[in-house]
Amino acid sequence: MPSVPTPSKAGIIETNTGERHIPSSVRADGSKRKEIKIRPGYKPPEDVEVYKNRTADAFRTRGSGGVPGADGLKDDKEEGSSSSNKNAKRREARKKAKAAEESVEGKGKEPSSSSGKEPAAPEAVDLEAEKEKKARNLKKKLKQAKELKEKKEGGAALLPEQFAKVIKINELIRELDALGFDQEGEPKAKTEETQE
Q1: Are 138 and 185 in contact (CB under 8 A)?
Q2: How far from the centroid of its chain's Cα atoms is residue 93's Cα?
Q3: Separation of alpha carbons 60 and 71, rounded Å
Q4: What pLDDT, in 10s, does the model give residues 52-101?
């Protein structure tokens, strides 16, 4: 008797006479499994379809659909993290400052329009303020790292994160130096004047 396969995830086959069974098979060790008869009307758990409640599905996805027909109006901009947005703004400000400087240099000492002068001055101040802000941040980190170093020398046990801060002391000093500040976070020009 030829068997006609019916779609079953459990491997159940229905014969022409209507009998259902799982055919015999060979195990990995070479022994043979017996054919298993399945009683009429039995549906194995693998073949039972999961009930999908359309109303509950629609309720779960109610906010993701948006306004019907408004798909074309959405901006294609990807929303990144807040830090990436800040960095993008800073890059734009630097580009504008460079463009303004180049336009001023290209024109020479000719009188330029008032709109060209206004953005250049605040952006130069912003860059200086940004430098000072970064220096304050580095100074704060350096102070914390030095305090942790003193703790360590006093015999206290440090966490791995704290130990990493202690290791970064020289790197923080180099960053301050690159920004034009000394180890105390003061601008180098002022410290040189006071030393003379």
Answers
A1: yes
A2: 23
A3: 20
A4: 898 888 888 887 766 766 665 555 555 567 777 888 888 999 998 888 88
Q: 112-122: per-residue pLDDT in tens?
A: 444 444 455 56
CA-to-CA distance for 12 and 21, rounded, in angstroms?
5
Tokens for 167, please give them.
């290791």
How buried is residue 138: exposed, middle or buried, by Cβ count under 10 Å (0-12/13-18/19+)?
A: buried
pTM attached to this predicted model: 0.35
Q: What are phi and psi of 4, to 5 degrees?
A: -105, 115
Sheet architecture: strand order including 3-5: 3-5, 13-15, 20-22, 36-38
DSSP-assigned states of every residue in 6-31: ---TT--EEETTS-EEEPP-B-TTS-
Per DSSP, the residues of 106-155 read HHTTS---HHHHHHHHHHHHHHHHHHHHHHHHHHHHHHHHHHHHHHHHTT
- The whole-angstrom separation of Cα 133 and Cα 126 is 10
